[in-house]
């Protein structure tokens, strides 16, 4: 290679870099995209340059109801509880504003009052003596066994 050829080569390279590069940006019905290599030998996929999903979602939100774009459950729950509501609707389903702890204490209290009401309703109901009390009242072991047998039947 001669000196002259090297200079010509540099000129050729410089001229090629100054030329307008062909754009890889293409368009389809969804927006502008360019092909992106996936790492495999011939694999390509479309990489969209416009963020059309956000614009479509915003447009859809303005035309649809708020049901699809509800507040998070926690915020809705707190707002309903603060307003003093017993129940609220979230994403088409009905929920209560009671917490798990409130529900558990409510069930325990209800059972306690039900037992007390039942006891007060029938005050003459016989209560079984404990076996220990029966044992204490018995003078002999034979008498205790007899009372326990009668108690089972």
Shape: elongated
User: How much is the radius of gyration in Å?
Assistant: 42 Å
Number of strands: 5
- Kindly state the percentage of residues in helix: 40-55%
Strand content: 5-15%
SSE order, as H and E? Answer: HEEEHHEEHHH
So what's the oligomer here?
A: single chain
Spatial order of strands in the largest sheet: 1-2-3
Structural class category? alpha+beta
* Uncertain residue segments: none
* Overall average pLDDT: 76
In DSSP terms (H or I, runs of 4 or more residues), the helix count works out at 6
How far from one another are the termini? 121 Å
What's the main sheet like? 3 strands, antiparallel
Summarize the structure.
Helix content is 52%, strand content 14%. It has 153 residues and is an alpha+beta fold. Strand 2 and strand 3 (44-48) form a beta hairpin.
How does this structure look, described?
With 153 residues, this protein is an alpha+beta fold. The protein has a domain at 3-69. The protein is built from 6 helices and 5 strands, in the order H-E-E-E-H-H-E-E-H-H-H. The strands form 2 sheets. The chain has a 3-stranded antiparallel β-sheet, with no helix packed on it. Strands 4-5 form a two-stranded antiparallel sheet. Strand 2 (32-37) and strand 3 form a beta hairpin. The longest helix has 22 residues, at 100-121.
Keyword list:
single chain; 153 residues; alpha+beta; three-stranded antiparallel β-sheet; two-stranded antiparallel ribbon; 6 helices; 5 strands; elongated
């Amino acid at each position: 290679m001669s000196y002259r050829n090297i200079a010509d080569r540099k000129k050729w390279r410089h001229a090629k870099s100054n030329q307008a590069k062909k754009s890889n940006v293409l368009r389809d019905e969804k927006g502008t995209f360019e092909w992106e290599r996936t790492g495999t030998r011939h694999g390509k996929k479309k990489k969209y340059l416009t963020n059309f999903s956000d614009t479509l979602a915003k447009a859809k939100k303005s035309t649809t109801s708020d049901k699809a774009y509800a507040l998070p459950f926690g915020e809705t729950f707190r707002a309903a509880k603060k307003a003093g509501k017993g129940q609220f609707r979230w994403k088409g389903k009905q929920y209560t504003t009671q917490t798990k702890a409130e529900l558990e204490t409510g069930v325990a209290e209800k059972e306690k009052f039900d037992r007390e009401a039942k006891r007060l309703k029938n005050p003459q109901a016989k209560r079984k003596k404990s076996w220990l009390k029966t044992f204490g009242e018995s003078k002999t072991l034979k008498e205790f066994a007899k009372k326990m047998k009668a108690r089972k039947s």
